[in-house]
């Protein structure tokens, strides 16, 4: 059993993907070819935003957004400690300071109740994360941000395709950033990312920054980086985007089946999707006791599981200079110690899920004598 089934999807659309790739090979514009603006237009239309700017990775998407805001050394950016390192890494790369806010125990996303107390006169932006497939509480976060005249950068690397109050991820704030890493709900066959914004001036600035700050050839009014999405990856994404809405529906069905199967099973907590949210279930993540022991028992049944973010960012050596200690963000630490993700994709069958449930039930009983 695959943890994330990319093979079934590929078999479904392989002919179309190969045709798209052949077109790229024929026209030979491997960098910034015509598939790039075509994809950007379709992504913006899907998300409901005015502008989409593709780039080389989800990490770069966050970095480009910070650069477009002119984040400077010593500036503070508020984010969460329970996420992939990219979220805080890009803040530190600009010599700004990541300021952490703990997460909600139900959704694993930023706790708006703790946000305002983290804002100081040096705060320049807020960067919530949509972990495991659902958006953060962007309504409350945006309200607090507006009160302090702060921009919000939505890290939607895992929740692109999800909605909050009927609005799609990446259309919740001045910047929405996502990743097209292969395992994401909408992934390419390499690295890739995108930034979404309603603002024309910021969109123009982002387009400059991603090509070394170049406005026209050999004219560089800004410092930038090299962060272009490969044309071949854009071609692949165009075919994947065509089936993405249906795959989001299928992911929701798979998530619901998991909920129904696992509800009431002792020794675990299942994901809670906030009332105002839908989820694309980038992962289906439960919380369990004796996680490592349980994971090994699942592996013995040839069922893969993954424990993500087992060391929260505030306890990572890369951020040791911030001076945090165990206990500073207790919910993040508790979730990091107990979370376990089960196989998840739009193509996971009911029989596969039944097998997972049976193995999980047995593993729990053996791990909790």
Description:
With 369 residues, this protein is α/β, with parallel strands linked by helices. The chain has 2 domains: 7-99 and 108-239, Type I PLP-dependent aspartate aminotransferase-like (Major domain) (Aspartate Aminotransferase, domain 2, 3-Layer(aba) Sandwich), CATH 3.40.640.10; 245-367, Aspartate Aminotransferase, domain 1. The protein contains 11 helices and 12 strands. A 4-stranded mixed sheet has the order 1-9-8-5, sandwiched between helices. It has a 3-stranded parallel sheet with strand order 3-2-4, with helices on one face. The chain has a 3-stranded antiparallel sheet with strand order 10-11-12. A hairpin with a 2-residue loop joins strand 6 and strand 7. Helix 3 (58-68) packs across helix 4 (86-93). It is globular, with a radius of gyration of 21 Å. The protein starts with 6 loop residues before the first helix and ends with a helix. The model has no long low-confidence stretch (mean pLDDT 96).
What percentage of the residues does DSSP assign to strands (E)?
5-15%
CATH architecture field of the largest domain: 3-Layer(aba) Sandwich
If you consult CATH, what is the topology of the largest domain?
Aspartate Aminotransferase, domain 2
The percent range for helix content is 25-40%
Structural class: alpha/beta
Number of helices: 11
CATH class of the largest domain, please?
Answer: Alpha Beta
What overall form do the CA principal axes indicate?
A: globular
Radius of gyration: 21 Å
Average pLDDT for all residues: 96
Strand order of the largest sheet: 1-9-8-5
| Helix/strand order | HHEHEHEHEHEEEEEHHEEHHEH
Task: Determine the CATH superfamily of the largest domain.
Answer: Type I PLP-dependent aspartate aminotransferase-like (Major domain)
**Distance N terminus to C terminus?**
27 Å
The major beta sheet can be summarized as: 4 strands, mixed
Number of domains: 2
What is the number of E strands?
A: 12
Low-confidence segments, given as residue ranges, are: none
């Amino acid at each position: 059993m695959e943890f994330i089934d990319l093979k079934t999807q590929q078999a479904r659309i392989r002919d179309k993907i190969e045709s798209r790739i052949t077109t790229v090979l024929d026209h030979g514009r491997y960098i910034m070819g015509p598939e790039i603006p075509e994809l950007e237009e379709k992504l913006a239309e899907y998300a409901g935003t005015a502008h989409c700017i593709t780039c080389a990775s989800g990490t770069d998407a966050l970095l480009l957004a910070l650069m477009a805001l002119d984040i400077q050394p010593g500036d503070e950016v508020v984010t969460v400690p329970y996420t992939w390192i990219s979220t805080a890494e890009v803040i530190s790369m600009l010599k700004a300071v990541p300021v952490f806010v703990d997460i909600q125990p139900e959704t694993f996303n930023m706790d708006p109740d703790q946000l305002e107390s983290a804002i100081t006169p040096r705060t320049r932006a807020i960067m919530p994360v949509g972990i495991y497939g659902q958006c953060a509480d962007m309504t409350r976060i945006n309200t607090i941000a507006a009160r302090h005249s702060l921009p919000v950068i939505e890290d939607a690397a895992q929740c692109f395709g999800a909605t909050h109050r009927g609005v799609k991820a990446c259309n919740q704030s001045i910047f929405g950033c996502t990743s097209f890493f292969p395992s994401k709900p909408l992934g390419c066959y390499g690295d890739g990312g995108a930034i979404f914004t309603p603002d024309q001036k910021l969109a123009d600035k982002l387009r400059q920054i991603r090509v070394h700050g170049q406005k026209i050839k050999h004219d560089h009014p800004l410092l930038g980086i090299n962060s272009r999405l490969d044309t071949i990856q854009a071609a692949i994404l165009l075919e994947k985007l065509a089936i993405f809405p249906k795959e989001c529906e299928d992911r929701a069905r798979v998530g619901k089946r998991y909920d129904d199967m696992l509800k009431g099973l002792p020794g675990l907590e299942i994901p809670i999707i906030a009332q105002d949210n839908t989820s694309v279930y980038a992962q289906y993540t439960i919380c369990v006791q004796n996680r490592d022991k349980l994971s090994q028992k699942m592996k013995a049944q040839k069922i893969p599981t993954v424990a993500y973010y087992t060391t929260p960012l505030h306890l990572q050596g890369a951020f040791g200079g911030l001076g945090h200690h165990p206990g500073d963000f207790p919910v993040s630490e508790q979730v990091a110690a107990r979370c376990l993700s089960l196989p998840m994709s739009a193509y996971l069958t009911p029989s596969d899920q039944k097998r997972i449930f049976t193995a999980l039930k047995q593993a729990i009983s053996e791990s909790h004598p």
